From TrEMBL:
This is Uracil DNA glycosylase superfamily protein. It comes from the Bacteria. It comes from Segatella copri. Gene3D superfamilies: Uracil-DNA glycosylase-like domain. The lineage of its organism: Bacteria, Pseudomonadati, Bacteroidota, Bacteroidia, Bacteroidales.
Amino acid sequence: MEGTNIYISDTDDQIMLKVLSSISSIIFNEKKYEDILLKSYQEMEEQCNWKYPDGPTDNGCAVKYIDAPQKYQDYSILGFDLPTLIRTDQDKPISNIVMVVSQDPRRTERYKGKLSLSSSFGFHDKSYRTNTRKGFMTPVIFQALETAPGTAIYMTDCNKLFTTDKRGILKTDTRKYQEILQKEIELVKPSCIISHGRTANAILSKIVGSINCELHYVPYIGNSYMKKENREKAITDFVHAFKNQYCVKLIFNRL
């Protein structure tokens, strides 16, 4: 893991641009948000090119605030995490992608009328990656990628928007979550999907018939109530999902 090069990236056929465009049209339904999401992801690509455990200094941009969609203008908390593709070698083609679906873009900061943008687990920002509480997924991701050379990880949320407002996210938006996930799967074409936590597993189970790849459940690693031994097992299961896909790929290529 020491000295591993890490990139937030895209593929040659620009999967991420297509994903963000789809999410923008389905959830935000305003042209300006497509431009904002694409620009924000490109900025993350430029910022996240570093060698573990080192990296760029804290750039202070773990969360970016933009105007919330009109229908959420009077909400004090609204969060959205950009789906994120992470790889270890920018110059070599990706042999396969493991998709990790977590729960939601949880937020605590209150800025009325603002939508807070970040990456999955704040991965693009050093202050989050190196925080033992907030960045708990960082070493897990590195370990997983190390066991599977040529494999990339695609991280996304099953619930695309988050709020603590008692009104909740509008049902007209939550009904679209399955549609978005199916679109992401169609574009990313993962060899394996890890449902990270019960919420993600419940939503993915509803569309399992249309998923043409292995679905692997792993308890949410960041659960503060989880016993140490259960967390260690969850991490092992997470990493093994990557290793198994890599081994299958090797066997297939030798046939």
